[in-house]
Amino acid sequence: MNAVTTDAAVAAAADRLKLTEIFLSLQGEARDAGWPTVFVRLTGCPLRCQYCDTAYAFHGGQWREIDAILDEVAGYGVRHVCVTGGEPLAQKRCIVLLRRLCDAGYRVSLETSGALDIGSVDPRVSRVLDIKTPGSAEAHRNRWENLPLLTAHDQVKFVLCGRTDYEWARDVLREHALPARCEVLFSPSNDELDARELADWIVADRLPVRFQMQLHKLLWNDEPGR
Question: Of the four, 47, 99, 139, 192, which is 20 to 30 A from 128 by CA?
Fold first, then answer.
């Protein structure tokens, strides 16, 4: 292989991402809940949360050029785009995709575990940062250096598995003054915490957080592509 061919191959690889799926649905959670949204699900995740509902995105996937991804997103004709995973930031070129989606005029959100550096994400992107609780079995992976980077444009999400998780999250909320930085969301983990019980705790403590349930699961359960 000559040098010209090698350079072309490297350039082509630099414009690709490994993709699990692209689909249109309603955004089921966070600030944009209810909006028709194109989901771009990237493949791969370094975490193994015990309650994960997208383990099918850990492996497999297909390499797609970023231009082709943008073309497919455009074909759906909606304004909102959510880049998710897996853990999308595990692929370095996710940063390029996010920037190009913003350049194309979309309202872009990123769902990330919070275990990887968010500092390079385009500031036009709403970063939905999932802080892992002890019940997730991945709390040791939290990158606390991300928290000072958050702005009012971003969101923090806690998925809670029980009272211990709730009290832990409540302490993190106060220690890091998170409600002063961005919107904070508390969600019950499916089948592990009764939603009404969590709602009662939030009300009793007057926590400055937003209770949420996953709208897409209420509508379609775990149907793929919904």
Answer: 192
CB–CB of 166/197 below 8 Å?
Answer: no
Q: Give the C-alpha distances (Å, rounded to integers) separating 164 from 98, 135, 141.
A: 35, 8, 18
pLDDT band for position 54 (cuts 50, 70, 90): confident
Residue corresponding to tokens 């969301």: 185
Supply the pTM of this predicted model: 0.89
Which residues fall in the annotated binding site? 26-28, 41, 45, 49, 51-54, 84, 86
**CB atoms < 10 A from the CB of 215, how many?**
15
What CATH architecture applies to the domain 3-220? Alpha-Beta Barrel (3.20)
Query: 159 - beta bridge partners?
Result: 187
**Closest-CA residue to 212 (of 188, 190, 193, 192):** 188
